[in-house]
Amino acid sequence: QVQLVESGGGLVQPGGSLRLSCAASGRSISCIVMSWYRQAPGKQRELVATITSGDTTNYTDSVKGRFTISRDKADNTVYLQMSSLKPEDTAVYYCRFLCWGPSDNWGQGTQVTVSS
Asked: For residues 49 and 57, what is the distance between their CA atoms, to the nearest angstrom?
């Protein structure tokens, strides 16, 4: 089993930036797809960005050009760099790792609030 711990959320003004981190721990971590999701109040959880073990990335249209997903293989950490933040980006952000086993692992979530 893989444990995921997110950090980096907070309150930011519109146009600002934040970087979220998702650190994985566990035995023999070997994951295939690492993703960030978000869930705003009253809305369904949506996929924001993914990165594969081959470093292929994908983004939902609303964040393209503003968010960047990346990973540090040595530290088993995935990042989400968020820039030009908008109030509609306000949500709880979750990381998800799909790993060999198979196992489907979620973090606890971190709140991002974009407000002036």
From this structure: 7
The one-letter code for the residue type at 65 is: G
Beta strand 31-39 with 91-99 is: antiparallel
Q: Which residues contact 28 (CB under 8 A, 6 or more apart)?
A: none
Q: Give the tens place of pLDDT for each residue, 46-100.
A: 999 999 999 999 999 999 999 999 999 888 999 999 999 999 999 999 999 999 8
- Cis amide prior to 41 (ω within 30 degrees): no
d(CA 8, CA 19): 6
Question: Which of 104, 95, 49 minimizes the C-alpha distance to 76?
Answer: 95
Whole-angstrom Cα distance, residue 31 to residue 99?
Answer: 4
Q: How far is CA 48 from the centre of its chain?
A: 7
